[in-house]
Amino acid sequence: MTAKNRRRWNHNIHYHPRILRAVPDGSRRALDVGCGEGMLARALRRTVPHVTAIDLDAPSLDQGRAYRDDIDYILGDFLSHPFEPASFDVIASVATLHHMDAATGLTRMRELLRPGGVLAVVGIARDTLPKDLPRVLAAVAAGKAHRAVRGYWEHPSPIVWPPPVTYPEMRALAAGLLPGSRYRRHLLWRYSVVWHKPRD
């Protein structure tokens, strides 16, 4: 990681390590869905020989292409781009599923993942108030503490708010579409889903 990237922090970057730890040994091809300016794609490239990164936002991709690397950046719609089915060992996505129909997005990722591959998603869902108020207050306090120490990097990509799916709805979607997946809700307004596609 470059010194520039080490200085960056926000709620999405905070959970990049969760995705990177999920990358299986021997992975040859990775796909970063909704890559933005490519920070996660560059991290994946340190261990995966071929990384493809796709996004709909041209200015963000232009920033990614300014780095000296061999990542294959694609301007396009992940849902309709003609990727080969079962062609990636790793599919990663951060804060992207709420930009599309989540069920459609997860189904597409499942189709593009090879048997034995890993899907790792960090996403944003909607709090359910007043039930989630204690979580929200804890997240605000933790976020302020992180910002005080590390600052906050504003990413260049478009924002969708509020997220259309609640945390319980996202958990149910993952369980239904990705049997055996590990869902976890995190403190800083994020959830993660990690799924190993069966070989059979």
TrEMBL record:
Pfam family, one: Methyltransf_11
A Gene Ontology molecular function term of the record: S-adenosylmethionine-dependent methyltransferase activity
Domain Methyltransferase type: 31-120
Alphabetically ordered keywords of this record: Methyltransferase, S-adenosyl-L-methionine, Transferase
Highest taxon of source: Bacteria
CDD domains for the chain: AdoMet_MTases
Name of the protein: Methyltransferase type 11 domain-containing protein
Biological source species: Streptomyces malaysiensis
Upper taxonomic lineage: Bacteria, Bacillati, Actinomycetota, Actinomycetes, Kitasatosporales
